[in-house]
Amino acid sequence: MLLSLPIIQPQPEPVAPARPRKPDWLRVKLPIGPDYAAVRKLVDEHKLHTICESGNCPNMGECWGAGTATFMILGNVCTRSCSFCAVATGRPSELDLDEPRRVAEAISLMKVKHAVITSVNRDELKDRGASVWRDTVVFTKELSPETTIETLIPDVKANWAALDVMISGGQEVISHNMETVGSLYRLVRPQGKYDRSLEQIRRTKLQGHRTKSGIMLGLGETADEVHQAMDDLVANGLDILTLGQYLQPTKRHLEVAEFIHPDTFARYKEEGLARGLKYVESGPLVRSSYHAERHVNVPI
């Protein structure tokens, strides 16, 4: 007697969900032109780090073509491991105390009217690199007294004495990026704390400074969460907010959950102003230092 065996059909391979396709409004031109080349040459000659390069900024061509750049001090290795950021993570080996002078000289040579200075996190340093921050601003003001400065400072992990030094150089704008809404902090900024960053902004404002922050959209946040973040920032003294589209820097980083339409960015701008922010820069290609020269005129 022959046994009848069931026919086993081959199972199809599981299909990974398709990644959202980058829309046309996120396409940018490659950086070219003599002005861009001049900035490139100065950055290389003075051995400077820029977040334009380390962060793969989509506006590098536009900004460098206009003869401006955002300088990154305290090296190019960060002690944090944020899941959105293209800057290298590890234990930094360099602490160049001559860097403030070199940055100030480069800004003077470039005849920059408005300079943005940022840095990696240096959690291993007792003062979080605060003295280098202060000296960079002070030296730049000495060499280029007409240059206005924004400093985009990192999370000091509640080292408020370090914060006081960081913001004491005479800069016109002091920025600290929230990066995302509260519910996504553990995913996006695992070594950061939402309330702690708000407290840093609050303490900066209490000392009479012009305050600024930035949030990336497209990481899975809801509109209500963005509105809540705006309310939290206003309650803690924020003046200026930038909103831009998150773009995945490499395959090792967080994937984009959604590409936000420019019309939605426009609505967020209206919401932010209605909720009490003094200035909102909102658009798919907006980054922290985009059009930063406009922010020095925001009333304190």
UniProtKB/TrEMBL annotation:
Residues 64-278 form the Radical SAM core domain. It catalyses: [[Fe-S] cluster scaffold protein carrying a second [4Fe-4S](2+) cluster] + N(6)-octanoyl-L-lysyl-[protein] + 2 oxidized [2Fe-2S]-[ferredoxin] + 2 S-adenosyl-L-methionine + 4 H(+) = [[Fe-S] cluster scaffold protein] + N(6)-[(R)-dihydrolipoyl]-L-lysyl-[protein] + 4 Fe(3+) + 2 hydrogen sulfide + 2 5'-deoxyadenosine + 2 L-methionine + 2 reduced [2Fe-2S]-[ferredoxin]. Its cofactor is [4Fe-4S] cluster. [4Fe-4S] cluster 1 binds at C52, C57, C63, S289. [4Fe-4S] cluster 2 binds at C78, C82, C85. GO terms for biological process: protein lipoylation. Pfam families: LIAS_N (PF16881), Radical_SAM (PF04055). The keyword 4Fe-4S applies. Keywords: 4Fe-4S, Cytoplasm, Iron, Iron-sulfur, Metal-binding, S-adenosyl-L-methionine, Transferase. Belongs to the radical SAM superfamily. Lipoyl synthase family. This is Lipoyl synthase. It comes from Hymenobacter setariae.
